[in-house]
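Newbie here. two chains, one complex. Structure please?
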Amino acid sequence: KQEVTQIPAALSVPEGENLVLNCSFTDSAIYNLQWFRQDPGKGLTSLLLIQSSQREQTSGRLNASLDKSSGRSTLYIAASQPGDSATYLCAVRGRETSGSRLTFGEGTQLTVNP
Amino acid sequence: GAGVSQSPSNKVTEKGKDVELRCDPISGHTALYWYRQSLGQGLEFLIYFQGNSAPDKSGLPSDRFSAERTGGSVSTLTIQRTQQEDSAVYLCASSLLAEGTGELFFGEGSRLTVL
């Protein structure tokens, strides 16, 4: 059974700092890995999608990497801003699960202080 | 609309009542998923639809939960005889491809409160 773990559970940083969020998964038989952002009381917004054959994806100040063999992904946020404050969720889409459903981590709650 | 649409956005009901939650996926997306997010918990898979195939109901927590998808588009999640532990945000997602490399897109969710 796929298990996804995110570290740290919560992170508080001053504005402008670069930061890294970590995600690990137990089963490397995946199609892809997706990073989401969730604001309080809202749905999930897709940030980056990395296919299993890719090593990284970039969007603006965000960079996500994937090391499938070791079961790890990182989300790098450059020059953090207060508007980046949210919960960040990592999810893997597994080859072994029906419909290739996403298995989610518990999330990292990020607070960027002005 | 361009995104996944869910209704109602908020629902407050009394214990024992039935509720229906609706999801309108992105046009053309063949796969539809329901997830549940309880307070302080991760996202829990409930059910998956793909085209006209039989749905994967393996995540439904009890027989009080059911879902249908009409015409391969709109889906309704029904909870009968609601209990307080059913209080959660119910999230719907759709994907262009059921298997493989497709990206999942989520709606804003339906927040259910059972008193």
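Moderator note: Chain B touches chain A through 25 residues (CB under 8 Å). DSSP finds no helices and ten strands in chain B. Thread marked as resolved.
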